[in-house]
Amino acid sequence: MEKEKSSAFETHMLVVSVSPHIKQPVTVEKIMWTVVACLIPPLILSVFIFGPRVLIITLISVISCVLTEAISQKALGRPVTIRDGSAVITGLLLAYVIPPGVPYYLPILGAVMAIFVTKQLFGGLGANIFNPALIGRAFLMATFPVAMTSAWITPKYIQFKADALSSATPLFIIKHYGIKALIQTYGSLSYIYKNFFVGIRPGCIGETSAFLLLLGGLYLIYKGYIKWYIPVSMIGTIALLTWIFGGEHLFEGNPLVAILSGGVMLGAFFMATDYATSPNWKTGQLIYGAGIGLITVLIRLKGGYPEGVCYAILLMNGFTPALDSWFKPKRFAPPKGVKK
Amino acid sequence: MEKELRTFKKGGIHPPERKEYTEHLAIEDMPLPKEVDILLSQHFGAWCKPLVKKKDRVEEGDIIGDVEKGLGACVHASVTGAVKDIGSSPHPLLVSVPSITIERDQEAERKEYKKEDWHNLSREELLSRVKKAGIVGMGGAGFPTHVKLSPPPEAKVDTLIINGAECEPYLTVDHRLMVEHAPEIVEGIKIILTILGIKRGYVGIEVNKPDAIEEMSKAVKENSEGFDIGVVPLKVKYPQGSEKQLIEAVTGRKVPAFGLPFDVGVIVQNIGTTRAIYEAVIFNKPVVEKVVTISGKGIKRQANLRVRIGTKLKDIVEYLGGTTPDLKKVVVGGPMMGFAISTLDFPITKITSGVLFLTEDEIDLYEYKPCIRCGFCLEACPMGLQPNEIGIYVEAGRAEETAQFGVFECFECGCCAYVCPSKRPLVQFIRIGKMKAKRA
């Protein structure tokens, strides 16, 4: 009997590894697939207002990203990790920042740029300096400027008062004709707020619905997967600076239209918060978010493009390593006789 | 409005407590084992030299090993019998250390210790009893207690803190000791305060042990005349049982990096240590036994066992009915800072607080991934360090450069690795950093 017991123990293959022996259940996969889930509602709305072709573009983008990830990992002799969901996120985000009317091959080119060049050549998950989806968009903007700035689709379920500009993005109208033209096109400011909040307006595939993006972003904050610092400082800065400088005179700009249009919500919750390309510590994150807000408003008000979120995030991505080394957590208590 | 509970400010986590397996089980005496293995290196400090030879007869409580020089504590025969061998035993950290094996005399029973009044004893006599009893910190590190109780004269110690946080999941040793032996622990506190020549003592207890708080408060009320002893309920947060975090939680003082508690006028003692001091002074009883929590789903019966020092794990497993077929990992200590072992020949030491028999669903077996730079570890680290950078540097072969991220301030609580979604072995990376980097 006794022998039996000890031999039962002998047959166990005991695991011996470093402490801690228990870990919280959150894994990389769980975080990534949760982000994917949070990104689905805006896509569904987009299919309703722009038609089924946005779904096809998104699928092409996701499949190209996943395939590029698998092929580049094989080619670079790395383990293939397409199941972690990170390439799916890049695929979704890439589709979400291009206009709904672009040719179907466009996202394929963007995916290769995003995954192979921006992510895998820099070392893969966690090692890239720039946001892959946004580099994909910037590349397409440079190579297919016409499609990327004019392939808009007039959304369904909305009555325009003036049809001339019905498919132009709100920021395009503001940039070239002023906010009064925007109000004329939509009828009234309250009609603008309502429809922009719900997401019925011209724009890129996944950026239109402030409400659904906010919902997804707040869920990620609630789960603890992202922190509020970046979205709040970014959106706050855009609102503040647009209010001050965005009108005909100082303090006459419309901050609400500014944060409900363009890619602000999508960028603030799903792109600027990308772990690898944003600072790790809250002080740096606050500054990073504010920097994105500043550059966005600068491009919108002074630059050649109506929208600046994409370039603002990419420029601040380059600033991230510096922010990380300048702003670190405060130590519990410094050693005796050492200052700081 | 209830006042917010005290705790430390920076970082920390709240892992599943899993104390329900054993927190309501009274401490039970395990029958004396047939033989014991007394390690000559039980803990931190110098190793003991054996003072007995093979075949010598020893009585329970005899000193059988002592340090020749340097920091350390003597070891005693934990049972009466004959020295069977002076060889070596497996050790979770040092792989194998010298040990004395005693075969118990089947006739001999537990030794009876006579109670004495301690109030007439001098401080020197009290301290010498602590030293002779071989008491070391029983919370885990095992720092020799008589040394800790003799701080240098320039340190102005004004506060004693008794550590009843027991923040590690599963472990319920201190919890049960407080519930079952509160008056003795309070008497122990008075002895320590007398040795230190101070009046003020606090017992910090996390609020997930309401019965311990109640018993200890009652005992303090009944028996603390002439002293200023208070029970401090603490918010449940890991690693509150770490000295620096506990001192901050209770007093708000911060021990500087590389400093010791007496730098801020505090001495910390563990609950088990305090009770051992009580027994050493009042009964002249050395450390011959230890209460350990045996828990986890991988053992047939969980228990809080009082066992002889040197009792082998396999005897404990046999006494509790064996392990279950799905046992996957055996951990000496708590699940956050304990050590995984591969053999049950391991003997209980003075610093063993528990042995956990864990099944697959209790532990983490996920293969680790690259750092995704989420920053969760920065948020969790109670010392304000950068475990993410340490891990990346060590992986890149630049472990020498990790002092800048604070490797030497790390006490390996494991909060960073606990929260890491990539399940990176950050504590391991930090240990490598500590080996290769140079302390500034």
Give an overview in words.
The complex is a heterodimer of chains A (340) and B (440). Chain A is an all-alpha fold. Chain A has 2 domains: 28-150, no CATH class; 209-324, no CATH class. In chain A, 61% of the residues lie in helices and 0% in strands. Chain A has helices spanning 2-10, 28-50, 53-75, 86-96, 106-119, 132-143, 145-150, 170-177, 179-186, 189-198, 210-222, 229-245, 255-260, 264-271, 282-302, 309-326. In chain A, helix 2 (28-50) runs antiparallel to helix 11, helix 6 (132-143) packs antiparallel against helix 16 and helix 8 (170-177) packs across helix 9. Chain B has 440 residues and is α/β, with parallel strands linked by helices. Chain B has 3 domains: 32-107 and 286-362, Ubiquitin-like (UB roll) (Roll); 123-283, NADH-ubiquinone oxidoreductase 51kDa subunit (Rossmann fold, 3-Layer(aba) Sandwich), CATH 3.40.50.11540; 376-436, no CATH class. Chain B is 25% helix and 21% strand. Chain B has 11 helices and 17 strands. Chain B has helices spanning 123-132, 145-148, 173-196, 210-222, 243-251, 271-283, 313-319, 376-380, 387-395, 415-419, 426-436, and strands at 28-29, 35-39, 49-50, 57-58, 63-66, 75-76, 81-91, 95-104, 159-164, 200-206, 228-234, 266-270, 289-295, 303-308, 327-332, 339-341, 354-359. In chain B, the strands form 4 sheets. In chain B, strands 1-14-13-17-15-16 form a 6-stranded mixed sheet, with helices on one face. Chain B has a 4-stranded antiparallel sheet with strand order 2-8-7-4, with no helix packed on it. The chains are: A mainly alpha (340), B alpha/beta (440). Chains A and B meet through helix 1 and helix 2 of A and helix 7, strand 15, strand 16, helix 10 and helix 11 of B.
